[in-house]
Protein 1
Amino acid sequence: MPILLFADHDNQTLADQTARTLTAAQAIGGEIDILVAGQNARAVAEAAGRLTGVRRVLIAESEALAERLAEPTAALIVSLAGDYDTIIAPAGSAGKSVLPRVAALLDVMQVSEAIEVVAPDTFKRPIYAGNAVQTVQATDATKVVTVRTAAFAPAASGDQAAPIIEAGAGEGADKSRFVENRFAASDRPELASAKIVVSGGRALGSEEKFRETILPLADKMGAAVGASRAAVDAGYAPNDWQVGQTGKVVAPDLYVACGISGAIQHLAGMKDAKVIVAINKDADAPIFQVADYGLVGDLFELVPELERAL
Ligand code: FAD
C-alpha cells in the first residue's frame, strides 16, 4: 500500500515535522515516497532521502511551487495520487492549506490531525478541543490524512540515500499568486517545536509588562514564548505566540504558564507537555488541575525571582 508523504520545508531545511509524519506513515505500513515540492530544494530532497524507511523522494521544482501555494501543489499531488493508497502530511500550515484541496479534488474525505494510527485505514483524532478522542475509519480508496506531529516521535536519519526522482511541476499556478512572507525576526526557538515554552496570560496586563516579565525568564531558559488568547486579543503578545485550540498545539518537555487560568481552549494546546508548571495567584485556577508543579502567588514577584534563581 504505497504512501505519499508531502514534506514540510522552507526550500533549505527539511522540517522536523516531516520525520514525525514519517513515523505515522510507517505505522500505516507500506512503501513510503516523500514528495518535496518547492524551488531550489535539492538539499531538502537529499535530507528526506536519508530518513530511514523511505523508498524514494519525488522532487517537483518550479516558481509556482516555491511557497507551496495550495492550487499548484494540490494539482501536483492529485496528478501523482493514482499511484498511492494514502497521502499524508504534517498538520502544519502547508499541510492544512494543501491537503483539504487534494481531498476535495479526489472527492474523498480527509482525516485531520491524526494522533494515532489504529489500522491502515483507521485513526484516532482529537475533537471538542481535545476533550474527546474520536476513532475514524476512512473507507475511500485514497486516504488523505494530516498528522498532529507532536503525537509522533521523529523517524531517524541514516547514511542511506533513497533515489531522488523528478516529478513534474503541477498546474494551476495562475489561480493564486505569492505576495510576500513576513517573518518576525527572533533568536528564540520556534514555538511549535521548542523543548521549553514560557507562556503568559491576561494577568500580565500590558504588552510592556508581558515583555518585561515573561521574556527574561524565557531567554534565561532558552525557551520559546507562548501566550493565551486573552493576552493576544488584548495586544500583549503577537498572534503567532497563541497556544491553544485556535493557536498552536505544543508538546514541549516543559511548559511554564504564568497568569493563565487554564481554560479548556488553552489546555487543548499544551496539556500534552511532559511537565507543566503553573504560576497563578488563584489556588483554585483550573490550570493547577493539569500542572505537575504549582506556585500560588503573584507572578510579578515569582517570575523575576525564578529568573534570578536560575
Ligand atoms: P483569564 O482566564 O482571565 O485568566 C487570568 C489568570 O491570571 C487568572 O487565573 C488569575 O487568577 C491569574 N492572575 C491574575 N493576576 C495574577 C497575578 N498578578 N499573578 C498570578 N496570577 C494572576 N484561549 C487560549 O488561550 N488559546 C486558544 O487557542 C483559545 N481558543 C479559543 C477558541 C474559542 C472558540 C473560544 C470560545 C475561546 C478560546 N480561547 C482560547 C479563550 C479561552 O476560553 C480563555 O478565555 C483564555 O484562555 C483565557 O486566557 P487567560 O487564562 O490568559 O485569562
Note: The longest helix spans residues 207-221.
Protein 2
Amino acid sequence: KEKVIVKGVEKKYISKKGETQALKDINFSIFENEFISIVGPSGCGKTTLLSIISGLIPPDKGEVYINGKKVKGICPHIGYMLQEDYLLQWRTVYDNIKLGLEIKGRVNKKTEERINKLLAISGLTDFKDFYPKELSGGMRQRVALARTLAPDPDILLLDEPFSSLDYQTKLMMEEELADILNKDQKTVILVTHDIAEAISLSNRVIILSKRPGKIKKIVDIEFEKG
Ligand code: ADP
Ligand code: ADP
C-alpha cells in the first residue's frame, strides 16, 4: 500500500541573491514499512523536500499525499526531526522528550514509562535532568530523535539525525534505530550525506542531482533488512 506519494513537486526560493530552483519535477512513492534514504550534494534540496512532505512548507507545484490524502499543512501521522535540534533550553532532557507527546496531545498515564524507555534506548537515563546546554551535540541529537519517536508516529522524516555523532555512537544509534523500526514497523525517510549509512539502513536510495534538485536515480538495495 502506498503510504506517501510525491507528485510533480517543484519549489523555488526567491531572496536577495535571486531565484533558486531548489526542486524540479520530483515524483516517487513510498510503501508502508519502507525505509527510504535521500542522498545528494549539499544544497540539492533534501531538506526542502522533507519540509514539503511534512507539510511545513507548501510546494509551488505538485502535491504530496499521505495515506491517500493530500497534505495541506502539518500532518499528524508524521514525526519530523529537523536538522537543527530545536530543543527548548529551559526544559530538561526528560521534559524535552515529553514535549514530543505534548504537541500531539498524547500525554497519559503511560507517558513516564514511555519516556524512560526512550531515555534508556538513547543512553540518556543518567542525563534526564540535564539541560540542553549541558549536553554535547551528539547527545542533543539523541534527545531530538527520542522526542520525535515519543508519540510513535507511523511516518518518520529524519534530516541528518546522526550528523554530529562520533563514529562509535553513530553506529550504536543506527543499530538502535534499526531495532526500533524492526519492532514497530514504520515508514521512514532519511536524509543523509552518508551513502554508507543510506545503504546500511534503507531498502531504497533516492539520489538527487545538484541543482535544481531532480531525481538522478532510485536504487533498490537488494538485501534483507535487519
Ligand atoms: P545542509 O543541508 O547542506 O547541511 P543547510 O540546510 O544549513 O545545509 O543549508 C543548505 C543551503 O541552504 C546553504 O547553502 C544555505 O546557505 C542555504 N540556506 C538555508 N537557509 C537559507 C535561508 N533562509 N536563506 C538563504 N539561504 C539559505
Ligand atoms: P540540502 O538540504 O540538500 O542541503 P536545501 O533544501 O537546504 O538543500 O536547499 C536547496 C537550495 O535552496 C539551496 O540552493 C539553498 O541555498 C536554497 N535555499 C534553501 N532554503 C532557502 C531559503 N529559505 N531561502 C532561499 N534559498 C533557500
Note: The beta strands are 2-15, 18-31, 35-39, 61-66, 69-70, 78-81, 155-159, 187-191, 204-208, 215-220.
